[in-house]
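Worked example

This section walks through a single chain of length 127. The input is the sequence exactly as stored; nothing has been trimmed or padded.
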Amino acid sequence: MKFLCLGYLDREKMLDVPQSEIDAIMRECRPYSEKLYNTGQVIIDTGLEAVGKSVRRVNGTLTITDGPFIETKEIIGGAFLIEANDMDEAVRIASLHPAVQMTVGEQFGWGIEIRSLHTFESPKLKA
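Given that input, the structure is written out below as tokens.
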């Protein structure tokens, strides 16, 4: 099974810290990330920019909106995709991520949400 792991953070708290300190924290993340990657179960790990676009249909018209899109302190700052046998194993793997291994993460509201994926395949891909 595949699981999408969403990394959350409180962006405002991180913006209050000098960039040099953030860079040092990110360097401290490397050993934890390597341990996570060494499981062989991480398919992709990526960070997300703070801004984006939303596309949806409203009253029959395609509407494009600038983001971020949620009204909350926490935003999704990154995502990673893993392969695991079940949710328990997915939680064990995601728990290796620096966001929950490093105590400094508490200061910035770092956390991981784990969701199983249901894959939809195009008929063209099944051939």
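What to look for: The domain at 2-116 is CATH 3.30.70.1060 (Alpha-Beta Plaits).
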